């Protein structure tokens, strides 16, 4: 007599591999062959997985066609079954799968288009974030500024690609003109994907800002994030960045470390005091607008 775990494992294997027959010995015929009973379950499960992928990746399906998409999905599903009951989390590895799928080798941009769609999907379903005010930042002691850890809005996602995936995505929306063409040599792109209220947005960002945002996502303190930005652009304007990204809620908050070694570290440029002065002036101009 099999244990419950052995029975469950045999059933799961049978759901994703029609040649796996171990589960059939545990199923009563009762007017229908065990293989036929299991096939009903298998077909329903695979159908639900396919539909979940279609919901997340409509642009991919439009690019490759319905038949190829189904073909790719049927190869993907057995290798990457959902690890949770909520299918919102299913399909996250599809971009990497497409890059490694030999029949799709002639479409090198496909993986990054899939990453854009997955980021869109995650952003759409992300939690609502709290807003912060620039006054909160102004209340922090100057010596603590380099060590602040900023938090992005929960819906924010970053994507870098050598291909113009934002234009490919836009050209394959239901309301796009049929005559739109995309120059694949028009990349690379650095994108911020996020939700603004109830609306979704895909925003191109500059290389230096992308470097800073990436560092913040990696939980680097402000000083290290600014260093990353200034490797790309020595004249990166931190004050302008903070005002813009606080006002549009890309930055949702920050953490002040409980203990910080304060010494040689200082925001570059003309010093922390100058950065704070410029931040105040920019904040006043925003408030008047």
TrEMBL record:
Residues 269-289 are annotated as: Disordered. This is Putative DNA-binding domain-containing protein. The lineage of its organism: Bacteria, Pseudomonadati, Pseudomonadota, Betaproteobacteria, Candidatus Accumulibacter. Residues 271-289 have a biased composition (Basic and acidic residues). Residues 19-98 form the Putative DNA-binding domain. Signal peptide: none annotated. It comes from Candidatus Accumulibacter cognatus. It holds the Pfam family DUF2063.
């Amino acid at each position: 007599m099999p244990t419950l775990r052995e029975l469950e494992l045999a059933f799961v294997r049978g759901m994703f591999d029609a040649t796996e027959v171990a589960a059939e010995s545990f199923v009563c015929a009762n007017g229908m062959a065990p293989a036929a009973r299991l096939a009903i379950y298998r077909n329903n499960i695979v159908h639900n997985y396919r539909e979940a992928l279609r919901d997340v990746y409509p642009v991919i399906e439009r690019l490759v066609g319905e038949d190829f998409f189904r073909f790719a999905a049927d190869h993907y599903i057995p290798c990457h079954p959902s690890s949770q009951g909520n299918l919102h989390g299913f399909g996250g590895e599809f971009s990497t799968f497409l890059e490694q799928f030999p029949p799709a080798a002639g479409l090198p941009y496909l993986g990054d288009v899939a990453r854009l769609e997955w980021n869109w999907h995650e952003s759409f379903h992300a939690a609502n974030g709290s807003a912060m005010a620039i006054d909160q930042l102004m209340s922090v002691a100057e010596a603590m500024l380099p060590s602040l850890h900023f938090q992005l809005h929960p819906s924010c996602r970053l994507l870098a690609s050598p291909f113009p995936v934002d234009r490919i995505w836009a050209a394959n929306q239901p309301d796009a003109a049929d005559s739109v063409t995309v120059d694949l040599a028009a990349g690379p792109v650095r994108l911020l994907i996020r939700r603004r209220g109830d609306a979704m947005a895909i925003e191109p960002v500059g290389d230096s800002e992308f470097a800073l945002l990436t560092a913040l996502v990696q939980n680097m303190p402000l000083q290290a994030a600014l260093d990353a930005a200034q490797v790309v652009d020595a004249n990166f304007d931190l004050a302008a960045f903070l005002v813009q990204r606080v006002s549009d809620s890309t930055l949702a908050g920050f953490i002040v470390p409980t203990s910080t070694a304060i010494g040689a570290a200082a925001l570059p440029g003309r010093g922390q005091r100058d950065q704070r002065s410029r931040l105040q002036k920019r904040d006043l101009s925003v408030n008047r607008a």
